[in-house]
Structures are given as C-alpha cells and as structure tokens.
Amino acid sequence: MTQTDTAAPAFRKMSERFRGYLPVVVDVETGGFDWNRHALLEIAAIPIELDDAGELVPGEVACAHVVPAPGTEIDPKSLEVTGIILDHPFRLAKPEREALDHVFAAVRAAVKKHECQRAILVGHNAHFDLNFLNAAVARVAHKRNPFHPFSVFDTVTLAGVAYGQTVLARAVKAAGLEWNTEEAHSAIYDAERTAQVFCRIANAWPRAVGDDAPVPPPANP
Q1: What is the pLDDT of residues 105-145, one digit of tens each?
Q2: Is residue 29 marked as binding?
C-alpha cells in the first residue's frame, strides 16, 4: 500500500468538528406558538454531511406529517399561514410516537455513520423547534431522543452575523440562494433552505487548525 493510500484525509471528520455532535437541521410546523398547548403537525430533519472535499452539505431529509396529539390545540390562524389541511386524503399523517420514531431512526443512523455522540438541532429560531420537539417527546415518553436537550445552532444568529439578516427568506437570498414563497411554511422546504444557509455560512468560516493546515507546535510555558 502506498503512502498516498494510507494518508489521513486533508480535513477533519464530522465527529471532530462540533465537539462530537452531528448538526441536524429541524423544522416543525405547528398549530400555534405555545409548545405546551399547541399541536405538532409536521416535522422534517436533515443531517449535515461531508462531501469529498470536506465541505458541509445537506443530507437526506426525513419527514412526517403528524396527527395532532390528544389534548393539544390548533389555532386556525396557524393553518392559514402553513396551508395545512388536516383531513387531506394525501396527508398520510402518523401518530406522534410513530412520527418521532421515523425521524429519530434516520437521525440516529446519521449520528452512527459519522461516529458522533449525539445530534444537535440546527434551526431558524431553533429553540422554537426544539421546544416543540421536546414537548412531543415528553407526551409520548420517548426514551431514544437523539438530540441534545437544550443546546442548538441557530441560523438566525449565524445569518445575522454573516448577512445582517434574521428573516429566513431574506437570509436565503443574501446567501445567494433561491427562495420560493409559494413553497415556504412547509417543514421540508424550510428545513432544506435552513440547511443550505447553515452550510453556506459554516463553509465560508475559516477552517480550524487541523482541517487543511499543519498543527503549530505548543507555545513555551
């Protein structure tokens, strides 16, 4: 085997980039703004992957429409914004536990693939998505939630620093990406655009020592 064959990659693997966490973009559509009271209606999750050059890229989406959990409420104004038709014959919604199982299985597989410890949620206004996710986990007493319970990466903050924009549509355009208003406010579309913004900003950030530069010697004490 040649030296080239045995050489280490020119970039760090994912498990070494974010303190052992795998960034996973999540977007939820809901029946309102109160995660303790309003229903979870859609969820989409996109693990962040590495391409052959060590650049961050969006992975495959895992998603589910969700049957409103018993006891939760839905504000009709939220449905006007999202365009969700709860009794649409092609909605194919899953009960909350089944929906979480479906999405979590894909996230856990990605965490294992990249040899990470667990997932960390990436979102636009990320704690909104995390709070609804955690509320659903609590309702069904789910024991295999792959996400960190309170830490997040928020693209509102990242886009505010990088582009001076905090609204997702404006951040997407500032990043040089396409935005389709007709498709917005679906969990899949918003998660895809959020993932693109996250990757665009993170890839533009100066690489940490060890990605493509020699490690400097330790400073003298």
Answers
A1: 999 999 999 999 999 999 999 999 999 999 999 999 999 99
A2: yes
